[in-house]
Amino acid sequence: MLYDQIQEAVRFIRSRSGFQPRFGIILGTGLSGLADEIDIETEIAYGEIPHFPESTAPGHRSRLILGRLEGIPVVAMAGRFHYYEGYSMQQVTFPVRVLKFLGIERLVISNASGGLVEDMETGEIVFVRDHINLQPENPLRGHNDERLGPRFPDMLGTYDRALNAIALGIAADRGIRAREGVYLGLQGPNLETPAESLYLRTIGADVVGMSTVPEVLVARHMDLPVFVLSVVANKSLPVSAIVPTTAEDVINAVRAVEPDMRAIVAEVLRRL
Q1: What is the pLDDT of residues 109-130, one digit of tens each?
Q2: Is the pLDDT assigned to residue 86 strictly greater than 60?
Q3: Of 79, 98, 126, 251, which is least surrounded by CB within 10 A?
Q4: Angle at 40 (CA atoms; ends 87, 124), nearest 5 degrees
Q5: In degrees rounded to 5, what are phi and psi of residue 37?
Q6: Closest C-alpha to 58, from 87, 28, 88, 34
Q7: What is the helix, strand, coil percentage profile of the chain, to 5?
Q8: Which among 255, 264, 265 is positioned nearest to 30, based on CA atoms?
Q9: Structural domains of the chain, ranges and CATH numbers in brackets
C-alpha cells in the first residue's frame, strides 16, 4: 500500500517535470525563503501531489520546488509536516520516501530549535551529529516493506561527522557562528517549560525542536544519507535568559540567518 502510494506520487511529479535532482532539501520553519534562491524548473503545490499532506505550520509554503541552487540540481520542500499538526508519522515522512525514489543522493534537512547550551546565541547554526528521540510515535512502526528498507535499521553513523567538519570549516571561513550538537525531538506544539529544558540538557541534548527526527529515521531506513542544520531561534537555557517566544519570533530569528544557511548548504553540496 505505502509502496504503491510512493510510486503514484513519483509518477505524478515526473509527469510534470523530467528534471533530475541530485539532492533533496527540507526547508524548516522560517527557512522557506531559501526557495527564492532556486532557479525554478518546476513548482508543484503539495495539494496536487497524490497522498501528500498540506503543511499548516506558520512559515511553511507547502510547495515542492525542482530547480538549481547556485547551479546544483535540487528538489526542495518549501514546508514540512509535523506530528503536532495531527498527521501520522507515516504522513509526516511520506515525502522523504518520494524524494528517495526521485533519485536524490543525499537529503539536507533544516529546522529551527531552542538552544540548550548556555553560551548558545540566537541565530547560531548547529550541525547535528546525533539525536535523541522523545517523540511518542515512530514512522517505522507497523508492517515493514523490505522494498523500502530493513526491519531493524541501525542508527550508528547516521550523521556524517566528516561532512559536519567541512561545514564547520565553511562557517569559520565566512565568520558564521556554528558548532556541532545533539538534536532532541519532542512532539510539540508547546515550547518547553524551564524544568523540561533543564532535564533535556541533563540527558545530553544541545538543541530541541519538534521535527527532523522522523525524517531522519525514514531516510536511514532507506539508506539515504542526511545532513542536518539547526538554527537556534531562541535561548532555552539558562533559565534566567528564557523569555516568552512566539511563532513570529522564531520565524524572524531564523530568517535573519537565511543567507548564511544558503551559503553553507550551497558550498557543502558543491563539495559533494
Answers
A1: 999 999 999 999 999 999 999 9
A2: yes
A3: 251
A4: 65
A5: -90, -5
A6: 28
A7: 35, 25, 40
A8: 255
A9: 2-271 (3.40.50.1580)
